[in-house]
Amino acid sequence: METNTIYLEFLERNKVLFKCWYPISKERLWKALSDTEELGQWFMKTEWDFQVGGKFKFEGGWDGWIEVLREFECIQCNSSNNAFTRFDLKSVKNGTELQLTDQIPEDLAAPQDDSIYNMQPGGKGTHWIGLLAGWEDFLLALTSHITNKEIEDHFDRLCAKYSAFLKKKYAATVSDANKQ
Question: Which residues contact 107 (CB under 8 A, 6 or more apart)?
Answer without folding.
Answer: 81, 124, 125
